[in-house]
UniProtKB/TrEMBL annotation:
<dbReference type="InterPro" id="IPR017452">
    <property type="entry name" value="GPCR_Rhodpsn_7TM"/>
</dbReference>
<comment type="similarity">
    <text>Belongs to the G-protein coupled receptor 1 family.</text>
</comment>
<feature type="transmembrane region" description="Helical">
    <location>
        <begin position="279"/>
        <end position="298"/>
    </location>
</feature>
<keyword id="KW-0716">Sensory transduction</keyword>
<protein>
    <recommendedName>
        <fullName>Olfactory receptor</fullName>
    </recommendedName>
</protein>
<feature type="transmembrane region" description="Helical">
    <location>
        <begin position="203"/>
        <end position="222"/>
    </location>
</feature>
<dbReference type="InterPro" id="IPR000276">
    <property type="entry name" value="GPCR_Rhodpsn"/>
</dbReference>
<keyword id="KW-0472">Membrane</keyword>
<dbReference type="Pfam" id="PF13853">
    <property type="entry name" value="7tm_4"/>
</dbReference>
<keyword id="KW-1003">Cell membrane</keyword>
<dbReference type="GO" id="GO:0005886">
    <property type="term" value="C:plasma membrane"/>
</dbReference>
<keyword id="KW-0552">Olfaction</keyword>
<dbReference type="GO" id="GO:0004984">
    <property type="term" value="F:olfactory receptor activity"/>
</dbReference>
<feature type="domain" description="G-protein coupled receptors family 1 profile">
    <location>
        <begin position="47"/>
        <end position="296"/>
    </location>
</feature>
<feature type="transmembrane region" description="Helical">
    <location>
        <begin position="32"/>
        <end position="54"/>
    </location>
</feature>
<keyword id="KW-1133">Transmembrane helix</keyword>
<keyword id="KW-0807">Transducer</keyword>
């Protein structure tokens, strides 16, 4: 594809349109990948939408825990929709071009939604901490007003930081190439295309990741260390089993999401390989959102019982 560029004031050619290479190195698998990712996208939409519908329709699930779960499912739908439909269009049409503004918009939305999920997972762990460690104060602490405030803070809290980071990255000149060896506009492959030394920008990425991912993850670990200590002191084995069952699904989602994402963004850009980056990105952008509803529903008897009640009443 022809490289589109303009002449900057300092006589440096700057890219104005990118090409997302995606999986173009697998020409014989384009049809298979198109079908596979189409099915995955439909599964993500159906499963997460089902969680939202169940928690809305069943009065038994009108609790803070399931309110946050519904918000998380909505974020998952938006999060996947930022990258997967664009990749499907590329596979269907073989048109892999994306404008500079389109690329910046995709990156910004992806980072904002990813940050919102990190913060919301921390809020969900706080909810479990209060429910298990301070059950008598739970109705007061997690009131409907407080839940809405926490959800709004989680969804909007990282927006200024990620908008600023996106602006900083796309204020660079891109003169090495316009070909992004990835299936969406992510930070590591974009920085590889920038002119000059990007070490300052890499450092700013690490600082932001520490703020939006490492800090929530540490808070989650602290919450669960206290939760586990409280669970182990419960007098009955049945009580301990129920508490562990409630928390283990959330903890599994946390490990899957934070683990794959942290490996991607904490590694130096120089050590990134396109194949590894794509594999890790597929995991935390597509695979994890597909399995999260299963993890939450299959390990939660309340959700299963609510689904049965809805199906029997229809």
């Amino acid at each position: 594809m022809k490289l589109e560029e303009v002449e900057a004031e300092d006589n440096v050619s700057t890219v104005v349109q990118f090409v997302l290479l995606g999986f173009s190195d697998l020409p014989n698998l384009q049809g298979f990948l198109s079908g596979l990712f189409s099915i995955i996208y439909m599964v993500v939409l159906i499963r997460n939408s089902l969680i939202v519908i169940i928690t809305r329709l069943d009065p038994v699930l009108h609790k803070p825990m399931y309110f946050f779960l519904a918000i998380f499912s909505i974020l998952e739908i938006c999060y996947v929709s930022v990258t997967l439909p664009r990749m499907l269009v590329s596979l269907w049409t073989q048109d892999r071009s994306i404008s500079l503004v389109g690329c910046a918009t995709q990156m910004c939305l992806f980072l904002v939604l990813g940050t919102a999920e990190c913060f919301l997972l921390a809020v969900m762990s706080y909810d479990r901490y209060v429910a298990i460690c301070n059950p008598l104060h739970y109705p007061l602490v997690m009131s409907p007003k407080k839940c809405h405030q926490l959800a709004a803070g989680a969804c909007l809290g990282g927006m200024p930081v990620q908008v600023g980071q996106t602006w900083q990255i796309f204020s660079l000149h891109f003169c090495h190439s316009n070909q992004i060896n990835h299936f969406f506009c992510d930070i590591p492959p974009i920085l590889k295309l920038a002119c000059g030394d990007t070490s300052v920008h890499e450092m700013s990425v690490y600082v932001v990741v520490i703020f939006v991912a490492a800090v929530p993850f540490i808070l989650i670990l602290v919450s669960y260390s206290k939760i586990i200590g409280t669970i182990l002191r419960l007098p009955t084995a049945q009580g301990r089993a129920k508490a562990f069952s409630t928390c283990s699904s959330h903890l599994l989602v946390v490990v899957l999401f934070f683990g794959s994402g942290s490996i991607t963004y904490f590694r130096p850009t120089s050590s990134h390989s396109a194949g590894t980056d794509k594999l890790l990105s597929l995991f935390y952008t597509i695979v994890t959102p597909m399995f999260n509803p299963v993890i939450y529903s299959l390990r939660n008897q309340d959700v299963i019982a609510a689904l049965r009640r809805i199906l029997l009443n229809t």
